[in-house]
Amino acid sequence: MANIKNIKWQKFMPNLLHLLPAYVDEDKSVVNTIVEINSFTLNKYELITETGHLKLDRVGYSSLSYPFVYGAIPSTWDEDGDPLDIMLVNVTEPVVPGALVEARVIGLMKFVDGDEVDDKIIGVIDADKRVSHINSIEDLGDHWKKETEYYWEHYKDLKKPGTCKSKGFYGITEAQNIIDECINRYDQIKSEKLE
After folding, report:
1. How many Å from the N-terminal Cα to the C-terminal Cα in the chain?
2. Are 16 and 34 in contact (CB under 8 A)?
């Protein structure tokens, strides 16, 4: 059984986006992640913010599949009006969409989608000893950065060409700053959004 503290049994499905904190261990930069998309798929799943259910938002418009596991950090709110995104890299086994994963933050990719800020936290699965040596995005190498930028800047080309732009990669400190900003933004809006 998963170790989720302070959540009582529910008659209805609890919405982990609003029940869980962003950080599991802030000192070690470990965050909760709700997986939306597994790697190597064209399917774009998205958590419904109001209910926490997973919805097939769309099937990708090109042959570019997600090169990483992708999800959302609970109790955060990014400038695009969604929970803060996180990419989990170097994942060796499929991860079931909807799964809760503890991820160790290693960096950030600043990103703009259309006119909206849509930053991406970069992390590794904390429980996977195969990635315990990865402590920063620099450990992933230059090719990883090129491949990731290429994916994000071109994945919508057949729908809306030229609308997505990477604004560069940053380290753990900047990633934590973005997480903290998104936690503060979430705290400011949750009282008016949650019933």
Report:
1. 29
2. yes
Number of alpha carbons in the 13 Å side-chain half-sphere of residue 171:
5
The two beta strands, 85-88 and 120-125, are parallel
User: CA-to-CA distance for 160 and 128, rounded, in angstroms?
Assistant: 37
Q: Write the pLDDT tens digit of every residue in 114-139.
A: 889 999 999 999 999 999 999 999 99
The whole-model pTM stands at: 0.91
φ, ψ dihedrals at 22, nearest 5°: -65, -50
Q: Which residues pair with 86 in a beta bridge?
A: 71, 121
- Within 27-93, strands assigned E span 30-37, 43-47, 54-59, 69-72, 85-88
What domains sit in the chain, N to C, each tagged with a CATH number? 16-187 (3.90.80.10)
Nearest to 84 by CA among 125, 59, 120: 120
